[in-house]
UniProtKB/TrEMBL annotation, chain A:
Keywords: Cell membrane, Membrane, Transmembrane, Transmembrane helix, Transport. It is a multi-pass membrane protein. The chain crosses the membrane at residues 31-52, 99-120, 132-157, 177-198, 219-244, 282-301. This is ABC transmembrane type-1 domain-containing protein. It comes from Rubellimicrobium mesophilum DSM 19309. Residues 95-301 form the ABC transmembrane type-1 domain.
TrEMBL record, chain B:
The chain crosses the membrane at residues 12-39, 74-95, 107-127, 147-166, 212-235, 268-288. Belongs to the binding-protein-dependent transport system permease family. It is found in: Cell membrane. This is ABC transmembrane type-1 domain-containing protein. Keywords: Cell membrane, Membrane, Transmembrane, Transmembrane helix, Transport. It is a multi-pass membrane protein. Residues 70-284 form the ABC transmembrane type-1 domain. PANTHER family: ABC TRANSPORTER PERMEASE PROTEIN, INNER MEMBRANE ABC TRANSPORTER PERMEASE PROTEIN YCJO. One of its GO terms (biological process) is transmembrane transport. One of its GO terms (cellular component) is plasma membrane. The keyword Transmembrane applies. PROSITE patterns: ABC_TM1.
Length: 316, 296
């Protein structure tokens, strides 16, 4: 990227500079380069070979699995296993559940984070600092603290799922998509992140709109929000990938509601169904398919994802 | 009325209202509720019965498993950092000065976007004793292949290695970003003064990278201490691996709550673990401030 932005005159300038002060070459540049590529290649192999192992496993015939010693490289690749997966398992249902739940969480978190981040960045009001500190402090609370209480809050939520005013009588939100979505409607980290992005917008712009008679909600939705588009995209891709892969909570609330299970949870509960060594190829095919959508999303939006991972770490 | 709602004084509270409602129902209430439950005995079917600090007493004085899980959790958290951080730094150093960064990045970050269930299943096959990929490769080198997932002495180490594999991409990206934000002129100056590459790294790059290192260590420690989804899938059907050798405190709490229905005792476990993580992260935050970085 840096090479593209060098002005046209640069080569000439560089040549002059090189002639004036011959650059001191670091010792053994060849050796360093070789070591560098060797290390990177070795690491990349360690990263990718397990994926290849899974794909090869999905393609083996039962006979190849049961042979002693087992055949590693499938001689007669069973591409049909990838079709069988859809016949034998509710893959489509799981995928749609994953997609719906994850999209709902992403939209909710982006909206609540943007609104709260905007309020904390662009308004002066008495409790502002206290609210901000709360949001930062809340990030310190690990997820496992909430597992038990959330379960029962959703179970005894008043007037939900057949519950009365006192929260008893029905199953509450358990057994509904709300149980999978509502506890993740707000992200403390998202508020923190969006506040950072809104801080970069000049106050003058907002004040000018106020003088022109624009209402606060108009200013937020039509002026401020479009200006943090890339920040919002960064948050969205992060939230999406995180919740697409969420297992623990979904597993906890959908054990008794198979219709709500998502892709990773469905695959997790498969363990028992493919105990038999001969049918494990189908299980492996299901796993390969569960990985594919998110890899495609990742490849398309890589740049934003990298930004979202590193945005909290480097100062300024 | 509408214009009043749309005013500069009221609008911020309207923007904050969803978050405030959420905080009351899904943060303040649960934190208080869990604290209360931890002082009761409750099977979730009959009303809770107040027992005071008995649950905490039981965990430290009577429970033969709890302290074991704490040590194992610490082993996991420290182990993942001790292996993962230097490895990620090494990869980031090589990565930050290489062409075609996009392609390398894909290779290293693929595990990070793969769901944890798939990762764990991939490795239950890779780590199989008789015909797993790892032992096949070891066999090619003439080395014996141990039972990575069945030997109690190796079970937690296997979980650590899988976790390192999973997190390498994230840490590598963080280090690469940290390296990218360092002004090249410092190391250039050191090189002009005749410093070797190792000296430049040890005395120039590493001190400047301190904030990133601390960020990676702190966030890694917190997530490592509370982690157990991986072990749930990696050691199916067992209660935390062979001889419970890979049972972490988080998973112990989960089993207590949702399998044994001991909500009171499980909440006490959650609070003890939370207190440990909290204190540890405060200590690390102090170090972080000294490292020249404000709130993360």
């Amino acid at each position: 990227m840096a090479e593209d932005s060098v002005p046209l005159a640069a080569p000439a300038v560089a040549a002059v500079a090189e002639a004036a002060a011959p650059r001191r070459r670091p010792r053994g540049p060849g050796l360093w380069a070789v070591l560098k590529y060797a290390a990177l290649t070795l690491g990349a192999l360690a990263m990718l070979l397990p994926f290849l192992d899974m794909v090869l496993g999905a393609l083996r015939t039962p006979a190849e699995r049961l042979a002693r010693p087992p055949v590693y490289w499938p001689q007669d690749p069973q591409w049909g296993n990838f079709v069988r997966v859809f016949d034998e398992l509710p893959m489509l249902r799981w995928t749609l559940n994953s997609l719906g739940v994850t999209l709902a969480i992403t939209v909710l978190q982006c909206l609540t984070s943007a609104m709260a981040g905007y309020a904390l960045a662009k308004f002066r009001f008495p409790a502002r600092l206290a609210v901000f500190r709360f949001a930062v402090g809340a990030q310190m609370f690990p997820f496992f603290i909430f597992l038990i209480p959330w379960f029962f809050i959703l179970r005894y939520f008043p007037l939900a799922g057949g519950n009365g005013w006192t929260g008893s009588g029905g199953a509450g939100f358990l057994g509904s998509y709300t149980a999978l979505i509502l506890p993740f409607a707000v992200s403390w980290y998202g508020i923190f992140l969006m506040r950072q992005f809104f801080l970069a917008i000049p106050d003058e712009l907002i004040d000018a709109a106020r003088i022109d008679g624009a209402g606060e909600f108009y200013i937020f939705f039509r002026i401020a929000l479009p200006l943090v588009g890339s920040g919002l995209a960064t948050l969205a891709i992060f939230v999406f990938l995180y919740h697409w892969n969420e297992v623990l909570w979904t597993l906890t609330v959908t054990r008794t509601a198979p219709d709500l299970q998502t892709l990773p949870v469905g695959i997790y509960l498969l363990r028992g169904a493919y105990e038999n060594e001969a049918t494990k190829s189908v299980q492996q095919a299901a796993i390969v398919i569960s990985i594919l959508p998110v890899i495609i999303v990742f490849l398309l939006l890589q740049r934003y994802y990298v930004a979202s991972v590193t945005s909290g770490s480097v100062k300024g | 009325m509408l214009s009043r709602l749309n005013s500069k004084e009221v609008a911020p509270w309207l923007f904050l209202s969803p978050v405030i409602l959420f905080a009351l129902v899904f943060f303040v209430l649960p934190v208080g509720f869990a604290a209360y439950v931890s002082l009761t005995t409750w099977d979730s079917l009959t009303p809770p019965r107040w027992v005071g600090a008995k649950n905490y007493q039981y965990l430290f004085a009577t429970d033969p498993v709890f302290l074991k899980t704490l040590w194992q959790t610490l082993y996991f958290a420290v182990g993942t950092l001790a292996i993962g951080v230097p490895l990620a730094l090494l990869v980031a150093l090589a990565f930050s000065k290489v062409r075609h960064q996009g392609a390398w990045r894909v290779a290293y970050t693929l595990p990070m976007v793969t769901n944890i269930v798939a990762v764990a299943f991939i490795f239950t096959f890779v780590l199989r004793q008789t015909d797993g990929l790892l032992n096949r490769l070891l066999g090619l080198l003439g080395l014996p292949g141990p039972g990575w997932l069945t030997d109690p002495r190796l079970a937690m180490l296997s979980a650590i290695l899988v976790f390192v594999w999973m997190e390498l991409g994230r840490n590598m990206l963080l280090f690469a970003a940290g390296l990218g934000s360092i002004d090249e002129s410092y190391s250039e100056a050191a090189r002009l003064d005749g410093a070797s590459e190792w000296q430049v790294f040890r005395h120039v790059t590493l001190p400047l990278l301190r904030p990133t290192v601390l960020f990676v260590v702190i966030t890694g420690f917190i997530s490592g201490m509370s982690y157990f989804t991986l072990m749930l899938v990696l050691f199916p059907g067992t209660q935390g691996g062979p001889s419970r050798a890979a049972l972490t405190t988080g998973q112990y709490m989960y089993q207590m709550a949702f399998e044994d229905l001991r909500m009171g005792r499980a909440s006490a476990v959650a609070y003890v673990l939370f207190a440990l993580v909290f204190v540890a992260s405060l200590v690390q935050l102090r170090l972080l401030r000294r490292g020249g970085m404000e709130a993360p």
